[in-house]
Amino acid sequence: MDVKSLTYFFVGISFALYIGIAIWSRASSTNDFYIAGKGVHPIANGMATAADWMSAASFISMAGLIAFLGKDGSVYLMGWTGGYVLLALLLAPYLRKFGQYTVPDFIGTRYYSNAARLVAVICLIFISFTYVAGQMRGVGIVFSRFLEVDINLGVVIGMCIVFFYAVLGGMKGITYTQVAQYCVLIFAYLVPAIFISILMTGNPIPQLGFGDTLINSEVYLLDKLDTVTSELGFNAYTENSKTNIDIFCITAALMFGTAGLPHVIVRFFTVPNVSDARKSAGYALIFIAILYSTAPAVSAFARMNFIDSVQEVSYQEAPGWFKNWENIGLIAWNDKNNDGLIQYSAGNALNEVKPRFNNNRGSSGERGLDNKPDMTNTNEVYIDRDIMVLANPEIAKLPAWVIALVAAGALAAALSTAAGLLLVISASVSHDLLKKTFMPSITEKQELFYARCSAAVAIFIAGLFGIYPPGFVAQVVAFAFGLAAATIFPALFMGIFYKRLNKEGAIAGMLAGLAVTSIYIINFKFVNTNLNSAENWFLGISPEGFGFIGMMINFIVSFSVCYLFKKPPDSVNQMVDNLRNP
Amino acid sequence: MHKQYWRSNLQIISILLSIWFLVSFGFGIIWSDFLDQFQIGGFKIGFWFAQQGSIYFFVLLIFIYIYLMNKLDKKYKNKSKEEL
Predict the structure, then answer these.
(1) A79 contacts A251 by C-beta, under 8 angstroms
(2) Number of independent structural domains in chain B
(3) How many angstroms separate the CA atoms of A228 and A306, rounded?
(4) Rounded Cα distance, A436 and A518, in Å
(5) Tens place of pLDDT for every residue, chain A, 582 residues?
(6) Does B33 reside within a domain?
């Protein structure tokens, strides 16, 4: 069978599996719909959390990003795993003890204020939609490259599947489909990584392989990569190019942001008790670490392989994947020196960076470009970093079934995260906005109905994001983590560890964190994009890392404001005491 | 009683979080360039902590926390039974 029919086969089977699980685990009460009846085993919850957390970005984009960033890419590896230590030690057990349905629920109750609840709901909806938009783009890329269907049709299929198990099954349906999706995605990630590791270094464990010597040679892979990247004018692969303070702040913003992401936190509400909440954070991190420790190995292999297979190769003899991705528009080649050979080095190949293709063909048969080449350097290749993981099995010439498997895995990663996000959006609308704020008199049945409606609306909006992808998706990811770090994490953390904090302090802190972080990011990412460089940044901290400063400001404002107003009522003190008791 | 439990809990958290800080922000970022002059196999030590080691330590830390907290829970459950 060829790659395409194998892909249909794998994707078809996995989708059938998800739907089957959804039917088997329908939700019948709000308790089932929001938190899966609190009956999820910690290992199952760990897998579900891992699938929930590892999105299209982790699966498709991260290794590619690190392949091109080298050591600078470590911020993602540390940032997106270290947050789980914070979650396990500082938040998960206590929030589970609290025993309600949503994150705004905790903030509204702990700070005895619907205003605080509303601020939390707004941050939550913003963060979650930002995230969903990225997932739908991932679904679109996979469908168009591997199944050769229209991107829009692919997004609609994805929406229908998510609709089916999220609306029907709620948290219960999502949890068990995520367990299946985790198995699919981790298998799909490891198989090509192990293959490539054996091919390049002879070591079957990728985590060790990328520190090993190249096959039939005495040279270490990473040393070779350092030499090759420096020769081509890049920063050496194992050296930083960013400043330490910037790396520090980005890592911190990602860690605290991770610990403040509502769709991750809510997973710990689904286990039977506090001790299981701690355990499931541990299992979740093991399952995540399996992928995250493999990713940098994949990055190093991919970078090496990519350079080896295109450098100084003539376009006519270029490998098939090069032309396939060129057809999708994610690779472009401009023969600057007209020698018919592909030369790859540092710098942008094209003016305006992204290629604009026309219908002509160049002298070697490459796709014609409307952009002028950027003649300040000799690089001739534009490559979209998102494609490295998807293209890697092809670059390494692995069998067709591995390539098909990767497509199914990427879809599992995108769909599982999308479903988790849509669920927290719908729960915060039906539970926090309707039941707890505007329509307190509705019955449980009505609330469940509204929860399903808002899940349906949220899926529809997410689908629109996929079909009309907003150009700002990449920019707003910094926003999602920045806001989670600057608003939700401090509110939860102080709610548990700092009894004296009253509603005035908490609200002022959240608003200050929200305002400072938004203004900084909007300024550099949307308004004054031309000023977005190190010399204009505050203390040299990039917008991606500013959530950490926003968090500090939140803490300072909360501490100062809370002493101007009276202490929280006794009922809140008792509530916190109760949280702290095992 | 409850206060003692909370104090031991805070102690455990602060020790574990110090290690958390050391292996990621310390070895992976602040002293990473310094550690890079030492090499084990193909890995420079600083690079290894930034891309591999910190992650393994994170997993380890959570499981140490689970172990210590379960022990603490047990101790205080037994104590409260004795008081009854």
Answers:
(1) yes
(2) 1
(3) 12
(4) 28
(5) 677 788 888 888 888 888 888 777 776 667 666 666 666 788 888 888 888 888 877 888 888 888 888 888 888 899 899 999 999 899 888 888 887 777 888 888 888 888 888 888 888 888 888 778 777 777 777 777 677 777 778 788 878 877 877 777 777 778 888 888 888 889 888 888 888 888 888 888 888 878 777 777 777 877 777 777 777 777 777 777 777 788 888 899 899 998 888 888 888 877 778 888 888 888 999 999 999 999 888 888 888 888 888 887 887 778 878 888 888 777 888 877 778 778 887 777 777 777 787 887 777 778 877 877 777 777 888 888 777 777 888 877 778 888 888 888 888 888 888 888 888 887 777 776 666 667 677 777 777 777 788 888 888 888 887 777 665 555 566 678 888 898 889 989 988 888 888 888 888 888 888 888 888 877 776 777 676 666 667 776 777 778 888 898 999 998 888 888 878 778 878 877 877 876
(6) yes
| Residue B84 within any structural domain of the chain | no
Q: In this complex, which of A207, A248, A289 lies closest to B25 when CB atoms are compared?
A: A248
In eight-state DSSP terms, residue A54 is S
B13/A292 touch (CB, cutoff 8 Å), yes or no: no
Does B41 fall in a domain? yes
Match 């950027």 to its residue by tokens: A374
What ipTM was predicted for this assembly?
0.91
Tokens of residue B30, six digits: 């602040």
Whether A30 and A454 have beta carbons less than 8 Å apart is answered as no
Residue of chain A nearest B51, judged by CA positions: A74
Residues 208-237 of A with CB under 8 A from B: 210-213, 220-223
Which residue ranges form the domains of chain A, and what is each CATH number? 3-306+397-580 (1.20.1730.10), 310-393 (no CATH)
Distances (CA, A) of A362 to A252, A326, A369: 47, 13, 9
* Alpha carbon of A89: minimum distance to chain B alpha carbons (Å): 6
In a domain, B83, yes or no: no
Among A85, A222, A296, beta carbon nearest to B62:
A85
Pair of tokens at residue A577 = 């005491």
